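F.,

This is the one I mentioned.
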């Protein structure tokens, strides 16, 4: 039996409700009657009137000895304190309450050993502001204000989840006490199949209770997760989420499995975090990723992950001062943003098989990162993939030289820059055998045309030009004659010594690049 005051929506602000004393009194009186009906059904041999008097005594409205219906209520109080039964509270809209105003309905709830709130609405920021032994849990409830779980309580029990299929309109937070203890003593998990608009904040917890216990079909909705100064003894698993704006983990220890599976996260920050168990981020998408001063002691999986949602040159995937003590898997990863592994330590070679770098990532990733990836393939004998990343490493080196030349002047390491540039133009750092092959065909054709023109006289330089060019050509031919290995060729083509030497040098260079490229495309 519920009155309209119990089932009606409450004001959007706490102050508006607390200023309405009449509404508060009406709510408390209606709640007394409602709870009395429930209790009378659960406890045999007790009348509704006796239950009303019992709850009124908790509010100090009446005393046991002053009411004729108070007989046996002391025994009821004792029986309730020893009972493990939970009362079902359905469809009530709970407002805020201030004990100083004399209408504290929390006193009624604290007198009941167990409570299950089903389809209830809460227009307050917490249920209890002090320790309570009442076991309570929530099913299909809606929390309209930021919800806070700070005070220590016994929890709903090891077989029950604290929040099941609940909707938090403005976020929820859990905080440990001064010695880092969790606010719940016994609970299967904190959340199951819930929706959280706003931020989930966990601060200063030392907990053996899983945070999430969702069904596989549930699509988790949550805007932000902030975890600081916590230690989790049980697994932390979050899968199949809608887009999460931000996850911020700092100064925290995960002693069991940590999993973010098939999650889309705009920004993931991990700072000073120890993952003592397996860390699995399978098939997740990260708009940006920062891991700093953290340790992964067990397997770390980033398989089929996408790093970056939209390509941009203003951000990167940064792993700074990170240590991986076991196997690390980036297989099938797609990098839309540049990757930075320069300050990362790998005890075992990571796996980058099948990973893909988009244009922005290839252009902005540093040389050392590509060298680390190349080395990971060389360690297992995968020469084809190693050669592909060798080319990316050399291209990053070319960009590095070019940027340094802009800073120090065009003469800075000029010949080194020239050689790297030539290596890129001829064969893409050994990755293309078509380029040197086409150059060989072009050079052979050029020699054939030159010989045909020499014999047929199709193109003859004007006398004025010839008189200027001939002395220079004679000097070059005399210098080329000093290369004794080619003298047998020179005897058949007198006057073309310099041309033969130049073409031979170009042909040998292209042939060498062609052979290197073919070898690098051959799987060992």
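My design for it:
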């Amino acid at each position: 039996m519920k009155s309209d005051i119990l089932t009606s929506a409450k004001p959007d602000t706490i102050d508006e409700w607390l200023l309405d004393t009449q509404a508060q009194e009406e709510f408390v009186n209606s709640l007394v009657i409602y709870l009395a009906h429930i209790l009378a059904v659960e406890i045999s041999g007790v009348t509704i009137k006796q239950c009303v008097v019992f709850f009124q005594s908790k509010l100090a409205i009446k005393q046991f000895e002053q009411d004729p219906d108070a007989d046996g209520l002391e025994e009821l109080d004792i029986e309730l304190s020893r009972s493990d039964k939970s009362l079902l509270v359905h469809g009530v809209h709970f407002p805020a309450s201030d004990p100083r105003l004399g209408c504290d309905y929390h006193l009624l709830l604290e007198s009941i050993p167990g409570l299950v709130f089903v389809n209830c609405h809460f227009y307050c920021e917490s249920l209890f502001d002090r320790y309570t032994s009442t076991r309570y849990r929530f099913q299909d409830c809606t929390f309209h204000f930021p919800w806070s779980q700070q005070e220590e309580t016994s929890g709903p029990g090891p077989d029950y989840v604290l929040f099941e299929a609940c909707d938090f309109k403005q976020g929820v937070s859990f905080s440990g006490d001064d010695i880092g203890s969790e606010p719940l003593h016994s609970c299967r998990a904190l959340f199951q199949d819930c929706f959280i608009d706003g931020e989930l904040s966990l601060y200063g917890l030392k907990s053996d209770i899983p945070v999430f216990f969702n069904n596989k079909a549930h699509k988790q909705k949550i805007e932000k997760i902030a975890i600081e100064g916590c230690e989790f003894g049980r697994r932390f698993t979050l899968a199949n989420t809608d887009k999460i704006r931000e996850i911020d983990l700092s100064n925290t220890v995960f002693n069991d499995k940590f999993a973010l599976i098939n999650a889309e996260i705009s920004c993931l920050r991990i700072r000073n975090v120890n993952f003592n168990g397996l860390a699995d981020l399978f098939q997740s998408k990260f708009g940006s990723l920062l891991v700093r001063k953290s340790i992964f002691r067990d397997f770390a999986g980033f398989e089929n992950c996408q790093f970056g949602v939209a390509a941009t040159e203003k951000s990167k995937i940064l792993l700074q001062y990170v240590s991986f003590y076991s196997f690390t898997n980036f297989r099938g990863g797609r990098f839309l943003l540049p990757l930075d592994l320069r300050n990362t330590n790998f005890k075992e070679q990571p796996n980058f098989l099948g990973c893909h770098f988009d244009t922005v990532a290839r252009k902005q990733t540093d040389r050392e990162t590509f060298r680390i990836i190349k080395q990971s393939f060389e360690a297992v004998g995968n020469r084809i993939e190693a050669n592909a990343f060798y080319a990316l490493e050399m291209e990053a080196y070319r960009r590095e030289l070019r940027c340094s030349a802009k800073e120090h002047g065009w003469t800075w390491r000029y010949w080194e820059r020239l050689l790297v540039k030539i290596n890129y133009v001829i064969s893409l750092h050994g990755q293309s055998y078509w380029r040197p092959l086409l150059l060989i065909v072009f050079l052979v054709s050029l020699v054939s045309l030159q010989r045909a023109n020499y014999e047929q006289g199709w193109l003859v330089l004007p006398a004025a030009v010839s008189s200027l060019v001939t002395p220079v050509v004679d000097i070059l031919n005399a210098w080329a004659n000093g290369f004794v290995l080619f003298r047998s060729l020179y005897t058949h083509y007198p006057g073309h010594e310099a041309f033969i030497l130049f073409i031979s040098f170009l042909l040998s260079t292209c042939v060498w690049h062609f052979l290197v490229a073919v070898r690098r495309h051959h799987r060992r």
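The chain has a mean pLDDT of 84.

Talk soon.
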